[in-house]
Each structure stands twice: as C-alpha cells, then as structure tokens.
Design brief:
The complex is a heterodimer.
Chain A lengths: L4 E6 L7 H14 L4 E5 L7 H4 L10 H5 L5 H4 L1 E2 L6 E4 L12 H14 L2 E5 L6 H8 L3 E6 L3 H14 L4 H4 L6 E8 L1 H6 L5 H8 L3 E6 L2 H8 L4 H4 L4 H13 L15 H10 L1
Parallel strand pairs in A: 1-5, 1-6, 2-4, 2-5, 6-7, 7-8
Antiparallel strand pairs in A: 3-4
Chain B lengths: L5 E8 L5 H14 L9 E4 L7 H13 L4 E5 L13 E2 L3 E2 L24 E7 L29 E3 L3 E4 L8 E4 L3 E5 L7 E4 L3 E7 L2 E4 L8 E7 L3 E4 L2 E4 L12 E6 L2 E6 L2
Parallel strand pairs in B: 1-2, 2-3, 3-4, 8-10, 9-11, 10-12, 11-13, 12-14, 13-15
Antiparallel strand pairs in B: 1-6, 5-6, 7-8, 14-17, 15-16, 17-18
The chains are: A alpha/beta, B mainly beta.
Chain lengths: 273, 267
Amino acid sequence: MSNATVVVVTSGKGGVGKTTTTAAIASALAKEGYQVCAIDFDVGLRNLDLIMGAERRVVFDLVNVVRGEASIKQALVRDKKLNNLYLLPASQTRDKDALTEEGVASVINELRMYFDWIVCDSPAGIERGATLAMRHADEAIIVSNPEVSSVRDCDRIIGLLDAKTKVAEDGGRMPKHLMITRYDTERAKTGDMLATDDVVDILSVPLIGVVPESKDVLKASNVGLPVTLSDENSPPAKAYLEATRRLLGEDIPVTIPEEKKGLFGKLFKGRAA
Amino acid sequence: MKFKGKSFIAIVLAPEPPFADWFREIDRITSRSPGFFIDRPIILDVRGSKIPIEDLEDLLEGLSSRSIRVMGIDGVAGTRLKPGMPPSFSGGRLASDVEVPNPSGNADKSGDNGSGEESGKKTQADNKSSKDNSNGAAESDSSETEAPQIAAPASEDNGSSIVITEPVRSGQSILHPDGDVTVIGSVSSGAEIIAGGSIHVYGTLRGRALAGVAGKDSARIFCSRLDAELVSINGLYKVADDFDGKLRNSAAQIRFENESLVFEELN
C-alpha cells in the first residue's frame, strides 16, 4: 500500500468555509511539493471546481467514476498553476444517492496509489454525502465558525467521525484538527463572538488554525484561485499556510493573523503593548 | 460447537383482570420511568389463571404496542400457544424483588394493583445463544437509530456501571438503565445520558442528564461544571432556565429530596 493520507474537511453546517478550506489546504500541500488530489463530494451542489478555477475543464466527474462510466484518470482535472494538484469534481446534475459505498471505496483506494494527500470536501449535513466523504478518511479537519450553532453541528460530526468511519470501525481513533474560520478580531475583542478558547473547550479537538474573516477570501474565489495561491501574504492565506504546516506535523503556535494596520494603527498598537 | 448456560434476572409480569386497569398501571410506570422495561427480559406469568388463548393474544399485543417484548410465557402449555407467540417457560426460581418505579403520590394505590405484583424471578436459561440477551447492561441505542454510540471506550464494571472515557458528543445518547454512568470528559449540548443509577461527569455537563430512570430516587447527578440543558432524577426534571443561576459553571451535585430536585455546590 502507498502511504497516502486521506483528509476529510467537514463541519455539519453549511456556509462555514469547508470548500474554501479544502481548496486552500490542498493547494498549500501541493506547493510543498506533494502530489495532491482534492475530491468534491458535494454532488448536486458542487463548488470546489469554481473555487479552484477548473469549472470550464470538467468533463467527467465523481459519479461517472463511481459508476464505472469513466476512469479516474479521465475525470481528474489538473490545476492550471500547480501541475501536482488535481481535482476530482462532483457531478452537478445528479444527487448524492448516486454515490455508492463500494464505488467510493474503490475510487479512494485507487487514488491512494497516485497521490500523497487526498483532501475530501464534504457536503453540509449528516446524510449520505457527508458520511461517504468521511467514511475512508485517515484524518479530519473540522471547520467551525465561532458561533454556537456551528459549534454544535461540529460536535455532532465529531461523534459521527468516531462511530461511522472505517478507522473507527476498525477500533482506531481518527486524528482530528479544528479549523476556526470567519474569525472576526474586532468582534472577538468586544465579546460578540465565541472566543477560540471556548470553541476548543467545547469540542475538545486540537486547534490547527484560526482564519480571520476577510475580503481576500471572496476576492480569491471570484478569480477562481484558492486563497493560498491568490495572495500569499493576505491574512487568511497566512493562516491556511500555517495550518498546513501543522497538518504536516510541524509544531508551531497558533496565531491569529490580522489585517494590515495603517501606520497610525501600528504605532498605536506598539505603544499600547 | 459449544453451548453455554447463562442465567438472567427476568422481570415477571403477572397480569390481573381487568386487563385495561392493569395496562393503565403499566403505562403509569413507563410514563414515569421510560427506561424501565427497555432491554430487560420479560416473562409473562399466567399460572393458575386458565387464561383463554384469545385473551393471551390480546395481552401480548397490548404489551408489544408498548414496546415491552415478552421472551416467554409461564403457565401455559407449549402446545396451546399459537405460532409466533413467545415460548412456554417454566421452572424458574424466585429471586429478589426487582425495584419497581413507584411513582410519587401513588402510595395509596400500590396495594391493590400494579406495583406490588411484579416480583423478580430468576430464570435458568440453558443452551441460550449469547446474542439473545448476553448483556443487558451495555449501553444501547436510543430510539434514534442513527445516533452513534461510542462502543470501544465504554468499559464495563461488573455490569452495574459503565465508564465512558471520552466526550459525549451532540446527538449521542448513552442509555444504561441498570446502573451508574461515569463520563470522563464533557457531555455536549444536544447529547444525553440516561442512567438507572447516578450520573458522574468529570467535565462540563452541557447536555441532558437523566438519572434514576428506573425509579431510583436515591440517584444523584454530579458534574465538575454545570451548564446542563436539562437534569432529571426519577422522572422529576428541571430545565436550564429554572436552575439556580449561582451554580452555573461550577461543580455541582443534584439530588432528589421531598419531591424536588436539590442543587448543591460541590466542595
């Protein structure tokens, strides 16, 4: 067997940043030189192709491969910037019932032979699509916003990760990483938002990164580039790049990158500290 | 191939006519202690009553509609039973009484009907395949079938209490109608612990804790940090809004006293 690692990016709730995170982490891993494949499991509501700017080159998709209508190599779309980053898109015209457990297993097993990292973008919810996306994962990235409903949904998902995955059924423990996205530093200061410590405490999963709410994320998806490729120095890109290094096993403290302050802001901050 | 003998304590139900009244009594017990009949072997005792087989059919139907599954019938010859009925049982040995939930304010009624007549009885079940009832004490799924259960980390301690060594997540339900449940870790909002005995949470209790569901009012709830959605002992419950605000987020114990729940700070 190869030593590929399958990571599922999941959250339960929709709109928290799973797809953005998948694209950002996958491209950051590719930049490190690994062979990376991102799989979109959101059959029927696919977005990963847009975020990665590959929507105009999709011919075959995950459902075609699962049903044996196309080979994996036919369906993989190579990234336009990085030639070691591939996308296996979801089908937009089918629904999640088109995926079968055995089909997904064989797709993942074949991909394990070609790639070092396989990053699965899970759909929202806890139904078939989400459970199939996590089913064969080796590790999980739990994406949460700092607000209660998102945190509770993540908690539910973690329960499923510990019960319904292959790793769990074989008696293992799936390593889990918590990614807090859409973190608003201003609102955190005024206490309008759950603090990162509270989220970590509730979920009891180690923190891998805190991504600030930023216009850069929207800007990047509009031009079809993962945020880690569009502007490396933007705060969200920095957060994702650091998170990726932690995923690779580096031990670096989690910092919360901030928007660049004007000169006055910097001076003021320096004096206050 | 090996056959193993195992003995189980079964609850023996001895229905008394009129059955409508008897069922009302059963309903009252289950409404106070929803967990009482869950996963327990039940024997129907109709000895000496010469019950017509049609009445027996109605009885079984009434029980199964209440999700009480009868595993055997004592007092009817096997040849009289219709196909599909539980098998005939006999030769049990009386064991100690099973504690029956005694709904509060019920003392006046218990003499004539209901609570008094369920006596515990030991059934010798030989050559019994272990899948049948091998351990009535394990945590089992709640009605919500997809609720995941933590299987591995729950270690059993002589069948009367279980220990969960990791957080109980939202949507998970730990059901243990026979004894104490100890959780090392937090119980999340949206999770629930249902125990026949006491509940101990070494972490934050954010979800629901229902102790003493089999009618045990001496059961207590302990947690190192109280932030629960609901706590209940022996069917008496309180929701978070009705808690004493002072105890919020501190170590607390909750006990049943004089028909009310008493909240106390620990240490």
